[in-house]
Amino acid sequence: MTKNNIHIYLVIACMPLIFQACTIPDSTQRKANTVVPESYSGSRDSSNMASIKWKDFFNDPYLAALIDTALNNNQELNIVLQEINIAQNEVRASKGEYLPFVHLGAEAGADKVGSYTRDGAVEHNLEIKPGEEFPEPLTDFLLAARVSWELDIWKKLRNAKKAATFRYLASVEGKNFMVTNLVAEIANSYYELLALDNQLTLVTRNIEIQQNALRIVRLQKDAARVTELAVRKFEAEVLKNQSSRFYIQQQIVETENRINFLVGRLPQPVQRDSQVFDDAIKNPVAPGIPSQLLQKRPDIMQAEMELSAAKLDVKVARARFYPSLDISAGMGYQAFNPAFLITTPESMIYNLAGGLMVPLINRNEIKAAYNSANAKQLQAVHNYERSILNAVVEVTNQLSKIDNLGKSYDLKSKQVQALTQSITISTNLFRSAKADYMEVLMTQRDALEAKMELIETRKDQLNALVNMYQALGGGWN
Fold first, then answer.
1. Are the C-beta atoms of 448 and 396 separated by less than 8 Å?
2. Which helix (H) or strand (E) holds 150?
3. Is 214:232 a contact under the CB 8 Å cutoff?
4. Which pLDDT score, from 0 to 100, does residue 180 have?
5. pTM here?
6. Predicted confidence (pLDDT) per residue in 142-181, tens digit
7. What span, in angstroms and rounded, lies between the C-alpha atoms of 200 and 149?
8. Residue 339 DSSP one-character state
9. How far apart are CA 396 and CA 10, in angstroms?
10. What are φ and ψ of residue 335, in 5° steps?
11. d(Cα 163, Cα 167) in Å, to the nearest integer?
12. What gap in Å lies between CA 67 and CA 50, rounded to an integer?
């Protein structure tokens, strides 16, 4: 059997392994469902409040100053910004993967070979002229450039670079989504603070009214027109509201510090104007149409970028089943004496090599990575669909909440007006002995509760507007 025949047989024997290496499992592909309703409650108006910049949406200068400070100092946001830098560096690193690697270096060394080695035997059998003997030990000097390059014939490296780019874009959208949440959280906490201020003012005024009523009851008790029970009832009501005032004050401190934490500063008083509580937001409700969520909600755009990256990851994992072509080359000078190092062409060296590698043995690892890439792609599809569904649900809920809170606020305003008038009526009747003290007491209590609920409803209205702005994707631009 000749040497050529042996080579032919070896190639034929290896062909099944080569075909097996090129056999690739099927991928699981599923297109994301991006269908959304055509409108909210039949409205086809495309005006969208998410297009309004947050500085124009919030007309309170104190709130605007808090948001502006938070965008610079919030620690969690700064952490996310560093994640964006990391993602950007990963793009640069992946871009360099499919470019040639060039190394330039210099080497020096010494080598003493034994006489009973191959190199030693060859060296001592040479006929060397006098004065041209090899130095012992034999030194070696090298100055060369080396190049290594994997040809990206299956776009494995370029797809990896594109996937890194999409992840970088996803990190940017993630930052935008966090900004949206941060702006909304600060605004909601700020309006809660204004509501607490108004409730504290209301309770303080009510305490003054009840203390005046308590003095009247005591005078009437001295005149034997009421009993000690009436005095104790009014006194207990005053003490109850005085206790409530301290509870509200504690809530104010905690809300201020929640804002301070979001702003990224130590506990301190939060500047605000509690008088603008009723006119805090004057922007009309404009939800636009549901399809706009796909371009305005940062979390949806982030999920879309992550899905694009996951699809490219599948292509990268698939390309690992194919042969890879590597090219390496080098060129430089090498000599045993520095004086001969740059002698051309005697000391010049060069090499060029290429290799085609096919995975044969370690296919389980490649298959596992490929299957994982497929599974992550399906995860990204579900996450994208979930983000869209969640956005539509949030906007729908906030629209309904704004409408119902508006109706509730109108009715509560009429209730407060009626109870406020009842206080005057019951007090006059009590002074003329035509009403019982309990009627006066219960009327005052009901009026206070209604006014507190009215403030709470107004706060809920403001929070609903902020949450609608957030749900539509506003606040990050």
1. no
2. strand 138-151
3. no
4. 93
5. 0.79
6. 788 888 777 777 788 888 888 888 898 899 998 999 999 9
7. 73
8. G
9. 69
10. -160, 160
11. 6
12. 17
Which helix (H) or strand (E) is 151 found in, with range? strand 138-151
Q: Are strands 348-357 and 324-335 parallel, antiparallel or unpaired?
A: antiparallel
Q: What percent of the chain has pLDDT over 90?
A: 38
Four-point Cα dihedral 49, 52, 58, 63, nearest 10? 130
Residue pair 402/461 in contact by the 8 Å Cβ criterion: yes
Contact 231/214 with Cβ under 8 angstroms?
yes
Q: Which helix (H) or strand (E) holds 111?
A: strand 101-111
CB atoms within 10 A of CB 385: 17
Q: Please return the burial class of 300, using the count of CB atoms within 10 Å of its CB with bins 0-12, 13-18 and 19+.
A: buried
Residue for token pair 């993630």 = 174
Residue 330 makes CB contacts below 8 A (sequence gap 6+) with 144, 145, 146, 147, 349, 350, 351
Give me the residue label for tokens 């034997």: 224
Distance CA 277, CA 470 (A): 20
Tokens 């409730």 found at: 199
SS3 percent helix, strand, coil of the chain, rounded to 5, is 65, 10, 25
> For the CA atoms of 239, 244, 250, 256, what is the dihedral angle to 10 degrees?
-140
Contacts of 36 (CB under 8 A, 6+ apart): 290, 291, 293, 294, 388, 392
> Looking at 267-377, which runs of residues are DSSP E strands?
324-335, 348-357
